[in-house]
Amino acid sequence: MSGHSKWKQIKHKKEATDQKRGLLFSKLLKIIRVAAREEANPDFNPHLRAAILKAKEENVPLENIERAIQSAQKDDAEELLIEAYGPEGSGLIITALTDSKNRTINEIKALFKDYDTKLAPQGGLLWSFEKTAGGYKPNFSVSPSEAAADKIQRLVLALGEREDVENVFTNVGD
After folding, report:
1. Domain with residues 6-74, CATH architecture
2. How far apart are the first and last CA of the chain?
């Protein structure tokens, strides 16, 4: 039975879950830092209040949340808005939270090559979307072919979106 240590199995499972938690915590704390830039008091900043509630739901330690709020003034993370044409001319609005615009844009461009997607000029697609509290909502939508819907869904997952995603397709090509 050499190599079949129960402790080793527990150790590897714990390392994997700790790594996933760490990535989630980092993402949530970065959102808190960006929201705290406007106003560090959650009573006067609804975005910060919502981010703190989400972090608490995921069991982020209060000490880490407070540290993220305090470091918000010296943090260089910023929100990035990318417009793209997807399969069959579908319009995509991608918002990203990054500390390096160039690196993020290059990573997204590399993903676009695999999914028949290209960048749109700044402001080229924004007219067909309405900004809401939760992101961008299309002004109109059409049903794409099954192949295009599958490609867009795979692209969204490749970009790192893991929450329930509602695919919205706009008729940009007409």
Report:
1. Orthogonal Bundle (1.10)
2. 66
Q: Kindly report the pTM of this predicted structure.
A: 0.50
Q: Which residue is listed with tokens 């910060």?
A: 48
Nearest to 31 by CA among 101, 93, 99: 99
Question: Taking the domain 78-158, which CATH number applies?
Answer: 3.30.70.980
For residues 66-88, average pLDDT: 80
Specify the pLDDT at position 37.
Answer: 83
Q: With contact defined as beta carbons under 8 Å apart, do 131 and 118 qualify?
A: no
The answer for residues whose C-beta is within 8 angstroms of residue 104's C-beta and 6 or more apart is: 80, 96, 98
